[in-house]
Amino acid sequence: MDALRSVLGGGDGSGGGIIGGGYTAYKKQDFAELKRHHREEHTLFIDPTFPAIDSIIGTSSMPPNIQWKRPPDICANPRLFSDIEKSQIVRPGEFSCNWIVSACAVLSGVHEIRNKVIPDYWEQEWDAARPEQYCGLFHFRLWRFGQWLDVVVDDLLPTVDNTLLTLQGGLENEFWPALVEKAYAKLHGSYDALREGHLSDALVDFTGGVSEVIDLQAEEYSSHEDKRREFFEMLLSEMAHHSLLCFSVIAPLPSDIGTRTSLGINKGHAYHVTDVRRIHLAETNLRNLFKGRHKAAMVRLRDPRDEGRRPPSADR
């Protein structure tokens, strides 16, 4: 088992090409200028620095009939967020790497970080009442090599039979995961380049902080009560300081990803730690389960990719 934390932080975005707010325009593409130009010309943005061609996927297993489509060509009512407060489900596409799925799923549950990576989301949202505002242009902010980069993308996405091959939201008309993934792929050069990444890398790129991976099994936490107590105290402290905490059970083989442990935990999924508390058992229905104890150290986990599903019951 691994526990991973990312301590939130950031830099001042210093360097050349600084735009408003201290962000560097990646590849010198200024979002505001591009948006103004395409709205005035009534044209849709096509990104010349990351063209919608099969080579940016970069995999030999591509189906032969990929079509690059914009969200309005995929569904009738595209949205960046179907519901900004509830859009916390991220589903993998055929070409999505497991770790980027987990990273975006965790991102969806921490609003202050999500709103930094996806700036001014309300202004980027599709507006059916003002269709002339749409120009197929979006931007996202990612931390890279000591500075915040403002990454511009068009919204041409790879599909087969009108189904996205990249990340998908909880609803078919929700496109923020696919567009964040495209910005991240652009930063790395291709979608295929993301296969070499790790969840800890993405958490740093999303927060501008530092990350630490703690292997609970290798360090034998289950055998040392003192170490478990110290670890729980650290979790309490990190949660109080608004660190981004994740937990995962390693999947030894690709085929193990998504299979469940006896406790119902999905292997290979990154769970977002949403709360850490010492519970006074006398105030709960758990006192019969923890007989002889007055308090219990508890950690609440959430798997945004498996929202709404219950762990299998003991008799199944």
Automatic annotation (TrEMBL):
Residues 44-304 form the Calpain catalytic domain. InterPro entries: Calpain_cysteine_protease, Papain-like_cys_pep_sf, Peptidase_C2_calpain_cat. The keyword Transcription regulation does not apply. The active site is at H269. One of its GO terms (biological process) is proteolysis. Keywords: Hydrolase, Protease, Thiol protease. Transmembrane segments: none annotated. One of its GO terms (molecular function) is calcium-dependent cysteine-type endopeptidase activity. SMART domains: CysPc. The keyword Transmembrane helix does not apply. One of its GO terms (cellular component) is cytoplasm. Pfam families: Peptidase_C2. Belongs to the peptidase C2 family. This is Calpain catalytic domain-containing protein. It comes from Laodelphax striatellus.
